[in-house]
Amino acid sequence: MSRTLTIPDDLYEQLESAAHVRGLDSLEALLKKWQANEESLQRRAETVRQIDALRERLRKKYGQMPNSADLIREDRER
Predict the structure, then answer these.
(1) Cα separations (Å) of 50 from 37, 42, 47, 53, 65?
(2) Is the dihedral of CA 62, 67, 70, 76 positive or negative?
(3) Which of 58, 39, 62 is nearest to 50 (CA)?
(4) pTM here?
(5) What digits encode the pLDDT tens for the residues 9-38?
(6) How far apart are CA 17 and CA 30, in angstroms?
(7) CB atoms < 10 A from the CB of 30, how many?
(8) Where along the chain do its domains lie?
(9) Interval 60-69: pLDDT, tens
């Protein structure tokens, strides 16, 4: 199903220019790319939320984890 959207000519030209700057051949391609980027950002945000939740569960179960950077540094020096 297709829909028609009326936008001002100056905005259309700006969007079309933005598409060409990104190497895209149409405004439709630009909109698809923006949608894909938005979905990617949402997936990343969800992944970060899950990591934070896991970190919090581990902290509650085991307490504050020590920073292992010093241990890794010592190990490399051997």
Answers:
(1) 20, 12, 5, 5, 18
(2) positive
(3) 58
(4) 0.65
(5) 999 999 999 999 999 999 999 999 999 999
(6) 10
(7) 19
(8) 9-77
(9) 999 988 888 9
